[in-house]
Each structure stands twice: as C-alpha cells, then as structure tokens.
What does this fold into?
Amino acid sequence: MSEQSSTSLKILIIDDHEAVIGGTMDAIAGAYNDAELQLAKNAQEAQEKLHSFNYSLVITDLSIPEVPRERPKPEIGINLLRTMMNNYPCLNIVVQSADARALIRLRPNIYEHEGGFTVVDKGESLQKMLTKVDWCLNGVNCTPNEMRTGLELKEEWLTLLELAFNESLKDKEIAKRMSIAERTVRHYWTKIQDVLEVYPEDNKNMRIQTESRAREVGLID
Amino acid sequence: MCIWSKIKHELGIWRVGAMPGMAVIGLVVLVRLLGGLEFLELVALDNFLRWRSPEHRDDRILIVGINERDISNLDSYPITDRKLANLIATLDRHNPTAIGIDIIRDKPQLPGNTELNQIFSQQNNVFGIEKVLSSSNDSRVFKIAPSPALPSSRVGFVDATLDKDGNLRRSLLSVVQNNELKFSLIVKLAEKYLKNRGVTLENALNNPETMQFGRTRLTQVTPNTGGYKNIDAGGNQILLNFRRGENPFRIVSLADIEANKVNPDWIRDRIVLIGITALSVRDDVNVGGVRSDNPGLIYGVEVQAHAISQIISAVLDDRPLLTVWNDGWEYLWILVWGFLGLALARLLSQSPWKLLLAIATGSLIVVGVCYLLLLEFALWLPVVPSLLVLLINGFGLTASLFYRDRQDLKFKLEDRQFMIGYMSSTIHNRPIQTLKKILRNVRDLDLDHEHLIAELKLLDDELHNVGELIEKETISDGDYIYVGNSRIDLQCPLKEILYQVYSSVIILDYPCYSTIKFKIVKFENMSSEGLNIEKKRSLCRFLEEALINVGKYAKDATRLKVTCDRQDTTNIIRIEDNGIGIDLNSQIAKNYCGGTKQAKDLAKQLNGRFRRYPGKKKGTVCELIWSVNQNWFWNF
It folds into this structure.
C-alpha cells in the first residue's frame, strides 16, 4: 500500500445497509487512521454533503434510497454517480455494487471522469476493497469485466499509445503534440491501463506492462 | 428533488413550447397596435351593448318629437317660429327644468319671429343649438349659427364625432374654438338639471380638462381608448353607454301636446327635448349599440337624450359610465388568455378532443366574462384579441398535437415492423438452425442419446428466448426500449441511451464481430432537443440496425468506430468499420434497403441527413446527422 498522506483525507461513505456501513467504516478507519470519515445514508444527504465539503474520496453503494425511509434502488445510485461525475470531475469514486452491469450506461461519463474510479464487488474481501480504495486515491481506474464489451477505447487514447510507444515521446511532448494538458495525458493513461487491465503491482513498471499489453492485443503495431 | 426535477422538465418544455405561443400573442398585440382589430372590437362592443337586458325608462327626459304626421299637418315646413313659440309656451306652463330645442333656428321662419325671440331672450330654461365644426374644405360639414336671440350661455352645440364605420359611439362634450370653450347641448342641459338638484359642474382636481359633476368624473376619450386606434379625440369626448331597452325615453308628438294629451307630470321638473323624429327630414344617426325598430338608426334628438341621460343617471343613480382599462392592463389581460390557451394545450396535450372542448369552454368564458363586466360595470374589455390568442394558441397547438400523434403512431408502427423482422430473423438464425441440425442427425441415424438431449435442450432454450423477446415487445411500457437483452430507459441522457444500445448489440454473436480487435468509441454531449420518446426510439433502432449490419456484412473488419457526438449545433451518429466494404449494387446492398428507408424517413423527420458511403481506405461508413435547436418552432 502506498504512503498516502492521511492527514487531510476526507472520505464520504454513501450506504444505507447498517452491516456494510460498519464493516466498511471500520476497515477504512483502520487503514487511514487520520482520515475524517463521514456518512450519508441517502442520495439527498450525499448531495448536500458533497456541496458543503471537499472530499478526497467517495465510497458509494449503487443501491441507495433517494430520501430517508424510501426503498433503495440502483437507478438512484446511478443518478447520483452521474451528478457527481458532472459536478466534481476530479473526485475519486469507489463504487460498491452487487451487479456492476448497471454501470454500463455510465461508461461514457466514466471515460470523461478525471478522478480515480474503481468498482468493488460486494462479494470481494475487505482486503481487496482496501486495495481498490487505495488505487482510487491514486487516480487509478478499475472496472470489472461485467462492464466491458471487449476492447473499447477512445481515439485520443490510441493516439497517445502511438506517440508514447512508437515514437517514444515523454508525456510533456505528447501533451504538446496533442494540444492537451499534461494532466489530461495522465488521465488518459489511467483509462488505457484500465482498458488493458494493467493495475499497480509492487515492483512492476506499469508503462512497460502497458506497452506489452497494447502490442499483444494489437492496439499498436 | 423529484418535484424540482419535474418543474425543471416542465420549464424546459415551456421554454421551447411557449415560443410559438408567445409569437402568436406578440403578433396579435402588434396587429391590435396597428389598428387591425379596431373594426372587430367595435362590432363586438356594439353587439355586447345590444345584448344587454333592458333598463327601466328614464322619465327625467321627455322627447317631443315632431314626426311625419305632424309635418304633414303643418302648413309649411320648416316649422314656423310661431308654432315653435306656442309649443314652448305650452310646455313651459308645466314647469320643466329645461327645454332643449334640437331644431336649427339660425334664420327666422316667419311668421312669429318676434314671439320666439322674446321667449329665447327671456326664458332661462330654454336652450338652443348650433353647429361648431366644419370640415376643412367646407364641403360636407358646415357651421350653423344659433338663433341670434339666444344668449350664448343657453346655446349648446350638437356636433357629433362619428367613427370610421359611420357609427356613433362617443359623445362630444366640449370644444375649444378661437380660444373660447364651447359646451354641447348635452352638457348645458345636464348642468341645468343637476344644478337644480344641488350638483354643480366642476373641473376634476387632478386633471382640469376632465369635467366632474359631484363625484362623477366624465373621463375623456384618448386616441387609443379601449379598442380604438388613433381616433380623433379632439375636444372633450366620452364614450356613450346607451340606455338599454327598446323604449328608453318617453316620446310624445307635437299633435299630442297640441291636443293636451300629455300628462303634466311628464313635464314638471324634467328635461324636455324638442326635435324632429321624421325620416323625411334627415336628423338620424347610425348606432350599433342600441336596439331600435329601425335597426342601427336612431334620431338625433334620441342621441341627445341618451347622452344627457347617461350623465345624470351616473350622477344621481350611480349608473356606470362606459370605462376602459389603461393599455398596460389591457395587454396583460390579452397575455393571460394567450397563456391560458398554451397552458390548456400543454395540460391536455395527450387528448386532443379534451383540448378542443377546453378551448371551446375557455372561449365561452372569455366572451361571458367580458359581457358580464360590460353589463355590470360598463367595462369595455378587449374581447376580440383575447379570444384570438386563446383560439390560435389552443387550436393551433391542437392541430399540431393531432399531427404529432399521427407521427408517433407511424414511428411506433415502424418500430413494431422492425421488431417483427428482428424476431423472425432470430427464429431463423437460432432455433431453426438447431432444429435442422437435429433433423439431419436423425436422418443420418447419427443418434447419440446424450447429444440429442443436449441439442433438444438448446432448442428449448432458444425457443424460450424468442418467447421472452415477443413478450417484452408486447408489454408496451412507454418509455423503454428493448435492445438485445437489455431494457433501456429512454428518459436517460441521449449519449447514455445510445451507449447502452451499442453495448447491448455489440455483445450479440453476429459473424463479423468475431474479427474485430477493438472498438473506438465516442459518446459525448448529444443534444436531445426536439426529440420525443418516439424519435429517441427510432434513433436507437437506427444505431442498432447499423451495428447489426456491421455484424452481418463487415467481413474481415478489425476495428469498429462508433461516434455519437455533438459538434456545435449538429448531432452526429456515425458507424465506421474497416471490413471488406459493400458493393452498392450487390445483393447485400439490397438487404440494407429496408433499414435504409427507415433511416431516410428518420433523417427527414429530424430535418437531417442520412448517408452510407465507402470508408477512406476500406469499409463502410453509415452516418446520420441533424441540426439541433433549429426547429424549435414546430416542436411543441
């Protein structure tokens, strides 16, 4: 686990299942002992809190109620995610879900989202969840197979791969060539790495892994 | 949140939908400002005035009308001064408050001039007439002097201000000529009568031009009062609120007076008006607002009676004078009715017949309200423009809704058609293929029990799936569309809807998908402006069809590029593959045709363009583009 400075870490957990809340919160509190944890039990409360505070990370359930005492529905979580991605393009988001297929429709929004975005299956272990939280805080994108329709990417990403691996350019030069910000180049990398399923591993160089995967599947010649 | 988003949704619809309605209101207001509605408004006023129920007769005024029979009994005409002097003397015996002589007497009509002049000069309650207005070229209207024997304090003019249609609706109270303020006979007689009852004529405090009797103000007509546009409002004029009923005043003849057949009580303390009531002597006026036995025409002396009566009734009985709102309120009133038309259309947009009924009811209400306000408070409201905006906004939209309904039905039918085709091909591609395989195995006696069970089980599954597909399609829950195995909510943002269509189709097992290594996608801010559910449904089917075509015909394609994007004001849906491409004359191209026709129809509906053309190097490009926010006017 990388050394994330936890002093200013502000985390919002959106969930309405008592059991899950307990488990998630304890685990997060254990891993980030200086983090400030806040809880929202419905979409409305979440919106209000997001409006008032500057969060480093949001961990949200997909199936949540709109207002207290209403029935939780996945559509509400989807709508909340859409709003969050529109209003806070750099927010790091972890989605907990039992069925990630509901997220497919948000694919175009996820592609444009610049913050970290990871999906945790509710059946996964707490340890795995903490890993994905950590990835998310580092801007990593990680979406499960259920959300994929094969290899799918945006044209700009393909250009980026071409410039990076066939012309061996540095990020700074790539940004100049593509007339985009360097930050955007980094944002593209996280998306590409998710497409190619290259995730942080100790002692491994992600760029090199990315290149070999890209050549392997034929994105670059 | 929920209510708020509904309101936002509603506002969005209004922002688009209210445009044509606002344009209609603006246009009607413009036409009214230019005077285009004046004629209709005046006709409406006349009709309303005529419809009113009768009032009781105003016995404070007695008309002595010299009628056709009186004239034929005279030795000569005009009536002689002596005859007139005798008439006045007879009437005066019964102590009338005032006698108004609505007969020209600028020259002596011998014999008897001395006697008449004596009466004129000595009797305070006798008033004579003059005409003070003349047309600029002295051709049609001439000035006529009063009798020289009358002091000017007992002379009133009888000039009338007619509307462009020749009708009298206003009453001229005073004019300024050569720096001299002259009053009409109406004012003179009303003043005399009211003074006897302790009410004097004054100028209104805040507006010295306005006359006031006691608390009753005679509000002046302006060039744009009520439905009038740019009339000559010179002098001091007020609107005429004619007394209702067929016999508003008691009229007796010269013969009745001479034969002493007149009850003295009819004369005592009243205003007696002497005038001609014979058609052979032209002293009649066109009026639309009065019921009379000779429609649209009453005698001049009756007009004087109406005008005097409305003033003294207003002062003594609080009978309302005809009033109007100022322009601001009038236009607000018109705006309200225009919006009502829009609101009805919006509210009942799902049921055109109900809307029709509501608009008809609304129209009756406008007319009713305007009529009742005129009846009760003599308030003249712009009924014609309000009715116009209500009808145009209501019916215009009704018509467009009928049209839209038909369009939606057409789209729905096309969608059904597509689904039927899709189901049939599903049955052909899967269960029938499986069945054939089993049949062949059976024929070849290649019967492995286990294998047969597996095959039959597959067939069962496939038939089951087809059944499910049909079931989904027949449950028509309005705002969803079924593509592949997904149900897509058509209320989502357009890019999400289309992405779901794409992701649901691309995982189906069409032969040419297997060679595709990767897909390049762009699903970005598409505008759904002007798209109703049916059009969104058609767009989904278009994308589905295009992607399926790639799956069927784009042989050897290694990449697929799907773009759903907006560039400036253009929405683009483009599907490109790098397969072997299609020969436009081949059988395959012909297979495309069904879908092509639908795509072309859709493009037409969207005012856009559909194209299918070979890609740059190889492959096929299929493209639908349409411009957004151009046809807001027709999209309500």
